[in-house]
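Support request from a user on the community tier.

User writes: "When I paste my structure tokens into the form, the page sometimes reloads and wipes my input. The last time it worked, I copied everything first. Here is what I submitted, just in case something in the input itself triggers the reload:"
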């Protein structure tokens, strides 16, 4: 049976994620969880995208680590764009980051702040069954052996003082008894004292006699072979160590397709994590070994790592990866050449690389090449082709492309005629999916009534909300509404605050307003 529940989690919460999987699957709900369900021979990132696309529900194991995880954020964005129901399973009393809150603030949360965890997993099973429309009766079957013994929480739950005092008293008595016991025993070889009970004496003698035998019979740990050791590091999510191990293995067997794919998957995870440090130089050294073995993913990774510190070498590595057909590297080469980074600016060559990236299926390539077509950068202007590229990228879930496409429908660029209703629909869709800038454009259409009946109150509400979410476009529109009296009585002082904030974020119209009104920002 195909998995219907995707489990999104951080490496620090792996034990709880596995307990969730065990609980769901014990109740007939097949799950997809990495790395278990990444099949040999499959690309890591592609496997995750495919699994989320096919899932009916995503369980987000949420803790303080989640806010700092780029790969979890990517999974959430993908789930939202695919209309997958998200159920956050909260382990700690932590507020989600602003970016994450955009996507999950309206979700139904389940708390697992207090032990036992298996009780909360049972509630989660019921919630997932409800989303899937599965009828249930009686208690959920939760395998007790899969649930970690220790509660997962930041702070202990509030309890009455009496049990706490009783617990402390018990601990004191036990500590005192243990101290008296060890003091009376002396060394391990000392026989039991005469006043000890027969049961205690027998236990002491049994412990002394059994210890050497147990130690003698303990089996020696069998060392893992190099490939198994590398896989073990990957399973434990030590990706820097795993990459170093795979680099050593590939140095001896450079053509091994399984090793090459495993190394590519590890690099994908490193890119997803985004905050991996290389304090001991292992990462850089192993990545260069893999780049020398002509691994495109490693060449692309080095290009990203060197982009700021050594743009010339960065461009060399991007070109090597692009020559092997990597769409993202093609887009990077085009972008660097269009900006004159690492080589003299060459718009014609840049456009050629961006076109290759777009044709290879990269949404970044599609957006960048569409920009070339609209501005005549390295290619003749072709608005209709640009609109086609935006349509393709939007269909693949790229919200930026959806915004560009909405603008083209609104203005009739690359279209037979303007279509404000289609523009409104696209802005609304992007806003619903968490793209805050879309709120600004949507609000403008509500204010003007361009796509239907005007709604000034709705427009101001969208702008105010987007401004508080730190979007410069919404800040500008909200400032204008405050200044013009669309948000109540004209309030130039508050408007000035929002103009300044938008200007500090680089909004050209806000900068012009501040300069014209001699207001520093």
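"...and here is what came back when it finally went through:"
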């Amino acid at each position: 049976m195909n998995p219907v529940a995707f489990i999104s989690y951080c490496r620090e919460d792996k034990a709880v994620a596995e307990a969730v999987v065990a609980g769901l699957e014990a109740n007939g709900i097949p799950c997809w969880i990495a790395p278990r369900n990444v099949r040999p021979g499959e690309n890591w990132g592609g496997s995750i995208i495919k699994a989320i696309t096919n899932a009916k529900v995503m369980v987000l194991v949420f803790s303080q680590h989640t806010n700092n995880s780029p790969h979890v954020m990517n999974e959430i964005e993908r789930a939202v764009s695919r209309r997958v129901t998200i159920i956050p399973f909260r382990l700690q009393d932590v507020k989600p980051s602003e970016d994450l809150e955009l996507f999950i603030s309206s979700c139904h949360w389940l708390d697992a702040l207090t032990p036992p965890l298996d009780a909360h997993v049972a509630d989660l099973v019921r919630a997932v069954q409800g989303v899937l429309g599965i009828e249930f009766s009686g208690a959920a079957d939760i395998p007790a052996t899969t649930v970690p013994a220790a509660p997962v929480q930041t702070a202990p739950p509030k309890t009455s003082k009496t049990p706490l005092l009783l617990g402390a008293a018990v601990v004191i008595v036990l500590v005192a008894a243990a101290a008296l016991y060890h003091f009376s025993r002396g060394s391990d070889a000392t026989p039991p004292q005469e006043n000890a009970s027969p049961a205690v004496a027998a236990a002491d003698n049994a412990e002394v006699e059994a210890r050497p035998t147990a130690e003698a019979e303990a089996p020696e740990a069998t060392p893992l072979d190099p490939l198994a050791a590398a896989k073990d590091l990957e399973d434990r999510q030590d990706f820097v160590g795993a990459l170093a191990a795979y680099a050593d293995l590939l140095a001896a067997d450079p053509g091994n397709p399984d090793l090459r794919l495993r190394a590519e998957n590890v690099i994908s995870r490193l890119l997803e994590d985004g905050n991996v440090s290389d304090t001991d130089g292992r990462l850089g050294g192993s990545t260069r070994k893999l780049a020398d073995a002509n691994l495109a993913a490693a060449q692309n990774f080095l290009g990203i790592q060197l982009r700021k510190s050594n743009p010339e070498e960065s461009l060399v590595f991007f070109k090597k990866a692009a020559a092997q057909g990597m769409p993202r590297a093609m887009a990077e080469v085009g972008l660097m050449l269009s900006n004159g980074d690492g080589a003299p600016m060459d718009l014609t060559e840049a456009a050629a690389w961006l076109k290759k990236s777009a044709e290879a299926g990269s949404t970044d390539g599609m957006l960048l090449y569409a920009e070339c077509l609209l501005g005549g950068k390295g290619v003749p202007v072709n608005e209709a082709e640009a609109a086609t590229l935006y349509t393709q990228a939007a269909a693949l879930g790229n919200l930026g492309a959806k915004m560009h496409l909405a603008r083209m429908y609104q203005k009739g660029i690359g279209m037979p005629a303007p279509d404000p209703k289609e523009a409104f629909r696209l802005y609304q869709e992007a806003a619903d999916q968490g793209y805050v800038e879309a709120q600004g454009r949507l609000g403008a259409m509500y204010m003007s009534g361009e796509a239907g009946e005007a709604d000034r109150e709705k427009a101001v509400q969208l702008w105010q909300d987007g401004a508080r979410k730190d979007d410069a476009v919404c800040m500008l529109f909200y400032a204008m509404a405050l200044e013009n009296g669309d948000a109540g009585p004209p309030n130039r002082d508050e408007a000035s605050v929002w103009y300044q904030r938008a200007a500090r974020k680089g909004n050209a119209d806000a900068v012009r307003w501040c300069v014209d009104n001699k207001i520093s920002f």
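Agent notes: The reload is a front-end session timeout and is unrelated to the input. The beta strands are 5-8, 31-32, 57-62, 85-90, 110-111. The CA atoms of residues 4 and 55 lie 5 Å apart. Escalated to web team.
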